[in-house]
Request: fold
Amino acid sequence: MLQVQDIRDNKDRYIKALTKRGIDAAEVFKKVLDADENRKATQTKLDETLAESNSVSKEIGDLYKSGNAKEANVLKEKTVALKESSKELSSQLDSISEELQKLLWTIPNIPNDLVPAGLTEDDNEETFREGDIPVLAEGSMPHWELAKKYDLIDFELGVKITGAGFPVYKGKGARLQRALISYFLDKNTDAGYTEYQVPLLVNEASGFGTGQLPDKEGQMYHVGVDDLYLIPTAEVPVTNMFRNDLVQEADLPITCTGFTPCFRREAGSYGAHVRGLNRLHQFDKVEIVRIEHPDNSYKALDGMVDHVTEILRELKLPFRILRLCGGDLGFTSALTYDFEVFSTAQDRWLEISSVSNFEAFQANRLKLRFKNADGKNSFAHTLNGSSLALPRVLAGILENYQTPEGIKIPDVLVPYCGFDIIS
RNA sequence: AGAAAGGUGGCCGAGUGGCUUAAGGCGCACGCCUGGAAAGCGUGUAUACGGCAACGUAUCGAGGGUUCGAAUCCCUUCCUUUCUGCCA
Reply:
């Protein structure tokens, strides 16, 4: 959520930046600023009325104490009108504030200067590419066929016990999953991130804090009897640990990592693009979250990109980095880099990580502030990224490491797996 | 699920209708003291909104009510803790 004061101070620049998302914000900004003026004026009137009420009450108290009940009773009559008008003003103020709030919720974050204009994924800008795409032997397969051939994943079994999009990992497939989780967590903690295990169900306030609610309600599984949501990403519980917090400047940055399953309803397309591990309702992910001083957040974003790059480099998977264009940028993000690994057998790129700087957009919703050296409070910047999402990494490993003898295990994973080939 | 006790500032914690303008402590900041530090002493220190400012207003989990006046009384609701029950 943007701050009204920022909109006021940077109106033209913000309007221009939002055109990169294909949004003309001129009208909504005008509405916001008008509503805010209205709010201020109403608040001032209300404050004056209440101030008078308070001073009359004090007088009445004093009169009673000095035994002058008669005069006190005269004054009491005066409070009736004051009370009425303060009630009226306060309900006006409530509805104005609510209107303002609703307007603010509809406005996405302001894209950073680096964000390319453009509305579709074709406009994303490739900033980096590394790793050779292997030339596969005759008879090479997509990962879902490999998973079946080597008995690593049973998709039908998942359908039986739950439904489509809930695979069962088995044997060396399950072990490889566990190896990846441990490896990712180790890389993250080695880089200084503190490891957390967090709840997989969150309350409504948490959904609001990170921006999944109210807009994307349909994308989360909802447990009705207890009014809780299954997390779509560890970002939600991890970032919400700091909701309503006021931290000291010296405590920044706060860096966290955590492994969680993620649950996404994603009612949408079917077909080849969602086959196998490409899109699931439940998948595993290791996430990194940073709470940063605003002056340092973009440096931190670059650091996160470098960190994920190093992991993919160690896994020796062919990957590229995209700077998302305005149209592809998430609602809450100011700048996002997507990592994609090449699926050789499918001949296409698969998104495996998304690293974003939300600036103060989430912090404003979360009320996550820090106290600086002068004792002033301001919103911290929040960032997060996957390091990494498991299924597509697994798909990439299966497809890119397949040989006629079997699937080789990337060197860095061998100690975690306890085997070096799946055959 | 049943019973009981609670929810107060960055944190702990006192506070049963007006002198609460929220005590006291911890923490933090600054100063004194010190070779330097600790301790000690002194001063300051909640948040939000409005205002150039003085200042005003709101906020004691949330929402409603009683009252001229509510942290305090009443109602509703959420959450936490303890005990009982169930359970890995």
